[in-house]
């Protein structure tokens, strides 16, 4: 299947700093990427939909100024957690939509564990 | 929007066939059914996708009855490494509104 690379896989930062997470589709072009947040033992929660060349669409309750999303190319989307606080500590996962073959499938990155001290 | 219901957890033993059923009563005409596997601290991994009847690949089979209100993921001859959380997703291929099930934690015992 298609490969999605997410980096970094693990980051610790001080409260008040910003953290950037990258999501790359390695062997296909993704006009649409998705960003999720997952708390322990819970399902994935969609945060936002990232569209190449346009503004991201945020889910209700997700602060767009807090979680900045940039999708500048067909293979790269970034999520920046600005002025991070301990409550932002979570597992963040990206996915990219592969429409090759007619059926739409999502392929996921390996996730980023963010710990804010 | 479809509401997804799947068992919270299941146990089985190595070498057995495991069937996990997902209920999606309000599935829409354009929706596909997709199953993902997730290990702790990893992103979900695509297992199988289908629209109707039966789909089989090298790791699983997916059975979808004619009314499409449920689907069953079948894992043949499971091993300890199949211990994971399995998510059922129903997706609108047009607007791509994905509805996630809460996940089924599958534990395989020796």
Can you describe this structure?
The complex is a heterodimer of chains A (117) and B (110). Chain A is mainly β and 117 residues long. Chain A is built from no helices and 11 strands. In chain A, strand 4 (32-38) and strand 5 (45-51) form a beta hairpin. The N and C termini of chain B lie far apart (40 Å). In chain B, a hairpin with a 5-residue loop joins strand 7 and strand 8 (70-75). In chain B, 0% of the residues lie in helices and 55% in strands.
Low-confidence stretches of chain A: none
The biggest sheet of chain A, with number of strands, parallel, antiparallel or mixed sense and barrel status, is: 7 strands, mixed
Class computed from helices, strands and strand pairing of chain A: mainly beta
The shape of chain B, in one word, is globular
Task: State the largest interface.
Answer: A-B, 23 and 20 residues
Keywords:
A: 117 residues; 4-stranded antiparallel sheet; 11 strands; 53% strand; globular; B: mainly beta; 5-stranded antiparallel sheet; 55% strand
Briefly, what is this?
The complex is a heterodimer of chains A (117) and B (110). Helices cover 0% and strands 53% of the residues of chain A. Chain A is built from no helices and 11 strands.
Topology:
The complex is a heterodimer of chains A (117) and B (110).
Chain A: E1 4-7, E2 10-13, E3 19-25, E4 32-38, E5 45-51, E6 57-58, E7 67-73, E8 76-81, E9 90-98, E10 105-108, E11 112-116
Parallel strand pairs in A: 2-11
Antiparallel strand pairs in A: 1-3, 3-8, 4-5, 4-9, 5-6, 7-8, 9-10, 9-11
Chain B: E1 4-5, E2 9-13, E3 18-24, E4 31-38, E5 45-50, E6 53-56, E7 61-64, E8 70-75, E9 84-92, E10 98-100, E11 104-109
Parallel strand pairs in B: 2-11
Antiparallel strand pairs in B: 1-3, 3-8, 4-5, 4-9, 6-7, 7-8, 9-10, 9-11
């Amino acid at each position: 299947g298609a490969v999605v690379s997410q980096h970094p896989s693990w980051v610790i930062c001080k409260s008040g700093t910003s953290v950037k997470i990258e999501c790359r589709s390695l062997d296909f072009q993704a006009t649409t990427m998705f960003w999720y947040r997952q708390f322990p033992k819970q399902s994935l929660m969609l945060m936002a939909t990232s569209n190449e060349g346009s503004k991201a669409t945020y889910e209700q309750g997700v602060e767009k100024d807090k979680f900045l999303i940039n999708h500048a190319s067909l293979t790269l989307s970034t999520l920046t957690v600005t002025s991070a606080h301990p409550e932002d500590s979570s597992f963040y996962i990206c996915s990219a939509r592969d429409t090759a073959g007619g059926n739409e499938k999502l392929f996921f990155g390996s996730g980023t564990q963010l710990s804010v001290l | 929007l479809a509401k997804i219901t799947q068992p919270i957890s299941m146990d089985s033993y190595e070498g057995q066939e495991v069937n996990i059923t997902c209920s999606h009563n309000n599935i829409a005409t354009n929706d596909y059914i997709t199953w993902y596997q997730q290990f702790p601290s990893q992103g979900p991994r695509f297992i199988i996708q289908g629209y109707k009847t039966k789909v089989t690949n090298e790791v699983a089979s997916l059975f979808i009855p004619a009314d499409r209100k449920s689907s069953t993921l079948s894992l043949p001859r499971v091993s300890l490494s199949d211990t994971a959380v399995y998510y059922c997703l129903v997706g609108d291929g047009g607007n791509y509104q994905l509805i996630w099930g809460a996940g089924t934690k599958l534990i395989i015992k020796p």
